[in-house]
Amino acid sequence: MSVLDGDGVDAQPGSGTALSDDFGREVTGVRVSLTDRCNFDCVYCHNEGLGDTRGPMEPSESEMSTDDVVRFLEVAEEFGVGKVKFTGGEPMLRQDLEEIIERTPDSMEVSMTTNGTFLPGRAADLVDAGLERVNVSQDALDPEAFAEITQSGAYERVMEGVQAALDAGLDPVKLNMVVFERTAGYVEGMVDHVAENDGLQLQLIEYMPELTGRPDWNIDIQRVHDWLADIADEVEHREMHNRKRYWVNGGMVEIVDPVENANFCANCHRVRVTHEGYLKGCLNRNDDLKPMGEMTKPEIRAAFRQTVADRVPYYGEYMVRDGEGGWEFNEKYLDGDW
Fold first, then answer.
1. N or C: which end of the chain has fewer CB within 10 A?
2. Given CA atoms 136, 140, 146, 149 in this order, what sign does their dihedral have?
3. Structural domains of the chain, count
4. Chain centroid offset of residue 151 CA
5. pTM (2 decimals)?
6. Strands 10-11 and 29-33
7. Domain holding 104: CATH number?
8. Whose CA is closest to 266, among 326, 304, 318?
9. 102-157: pLDDT as tens digits
10. Taking 50 as the threshold, does the pLDDT of residue 255 lie above it?
11. Domain that holds residue 100
């Protein structure tokens, strides 16, 4: 029996079985950018790997519509995708965010990454719509340092947003902190902060100089690992991405360290969607962008299948060791023969 998918084209019903790439990595999650607009201008931002394309604050006609986003998610569900994370830019600049979440397939776990400034007054509605988890970007507890890093004066508003998320039941709230030269001095304070405040967790994210163009801001993330290991009451190793969680005085701190990490890439189970409706198989690459056409379900299905089929682990395959301890591009993928 065929299914008429609303586009006037018969389509096979999804089996719910996740697609795998040639490296055995099942795609079980999607990360959907809803806009490249943002009310912050963070100095380290790479805009989901697309570079500094931040434009005017008014909505652009190029942004996926509400129906486009929902239609994509319905197709992703057919292919066994069980998780979606909404990102931006700042996703809460989308006034239809609650509708998008409410119309997300019930089988999907819904999370969001935000700078938190719009959570006061909206957090409860987002939870009612179906939001289950939230990450809030917070790179320092010092208002002046926060302003320098984010190019905004919204420190107090972010703190209010975190509390609004907790009050709405989004517990735990995970604070995202990018660790680089200008934030490293605030890591200790953030670790203490999550230990002293119930409902908060800390995610330390390795700075990605290849996406930001400022290698001089980089620090050795292993130093942070070593420091946390020395002070932690417990260390948990997560097989996914080979991550480590450190429990310090009751607070949970996790490090996300993808740079030059072949284990991280070997365990990646996500594809990404740009705000303009392009699929990409890897954060670090923009040479694999695939359009979804007019966003009909058949077009989305075809693009999704091809994106998964073409996925390549960035470190360990697309980038390979050069024999001297460094990394170089794998010519196999530069020649276009693959």
1. N
2. negative
3. 1
4. 21
5. 0.91
6. unpaired
7. 3.20.20.70
8. 318
9. 999 999 999 999 999 999 999 999 999 999 999 999 999 999 999 999 988 899 99
10. yes
11. 3-334
